[in-house]
């Protein structure tokens, strides 16, 4: 349906993906008819104490 690799979707679902390609994000937004901000949320990495470090997490609210 999306044309995305099943392994890619599985890693996104289980939050084990180490990186995201822009074309994957684009395809997800197109398929789900949503904006990037509806898929991702910026959450600063507080575990390392490095204020310049960050992670992206899926928005499940």
Structure description:
By secondary structure, this protein is α+β, with helices and mostly antiparallel strands. It has helices at 6-13, 22-32, 36-39; strands spanning 40-44, 54-58. It has a two-stranded antiparallel sheet with strand order 1-2.
Question: Which keywords apply here?
Answer:
alpha+beta; 2 strands; 3 helices; 61 residues; two-stranded antiparallel ribbon; single chain; 38% helix
Whole-number average pLDDT?
A: 82
Structural class: alpha+beta
CA-based shape? globular
Rounded to an integer in angstroms, the radius of gyration calculated over CA atoms is 13 Å
Q: What share of residues is helical? A: 25-40%
Largest β sheet strand count, sense and barrel closure: 2 strands, antiparallel
Number of strands: 2
Order of helices and strands: HHHEE
**Model regions low in confidence, pLDDT < 50 over at least 5 residues:** none
Supply the number of helical segments.
3
In brief, what are we looking at here?
This protein is of the alpha+beta class and 61 residues long.
Task: Please write out the topology.
Layout: H1 6-13, H2 22-32, H3 36-39, E1 40-44, E2 54-58
Antiparallel strand pairs: 1-2
């Amino acid at each position: 349906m999306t044309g995305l690799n099943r392994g890619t979707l599985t890693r996104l679902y289980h939050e084990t993906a180490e990186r995201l390609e822009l074309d994957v994000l684009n395809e997800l937004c197109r398929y789900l008819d949503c904006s990037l901000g509806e898929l991702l949320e910026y959450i600063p990495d507080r575990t390392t104490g490095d204020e310049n470090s960050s992670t992206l997490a899926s928005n499940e609210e």
